Structure to design on (86 residues):
């Protein structure tokens, strides 16, 4: 919603928002020691929206590393500030 070409048939924003909400809940659980990284990775793979998971878990280096490794074809040094990515 809010995009000039928004269509009510396009539900991607709802899926993305749902994934964001879920990731936020899992972040709290992870920080409290209630879940393991493997659980987060498994859920992230099944739900998709890699960038959502990376944003929510920003600063949780072990989780970020696991997500980078789990999503095939992800540039290993994707957190670099080097725009040439060499």
């Amino acid at each position: 919603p809010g995009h000039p070409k928004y269509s009510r048939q396009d539900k991607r924003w709802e899926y993305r928002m749902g994934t964001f909400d879920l990731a936020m809940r899992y972040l709290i659980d992870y920080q409290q020691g209630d879940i393991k990284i493997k659980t987060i990775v498994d859920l992230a793979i099944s739900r998709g929206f890699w960038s959502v998971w990376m944003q929510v878990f920003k600063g949780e280096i072990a989780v970020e590393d696991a997500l980078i490794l789990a999503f095939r074809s992800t540039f290993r040094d994707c957190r670099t500030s080097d725009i040439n990515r060499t």
Summary: The chain has four helices and no strands. The helical segments are 12-31, 37-47, 50-56, 61-70. The CA atoms of residues 67 and 73 lie 12 Å apart.
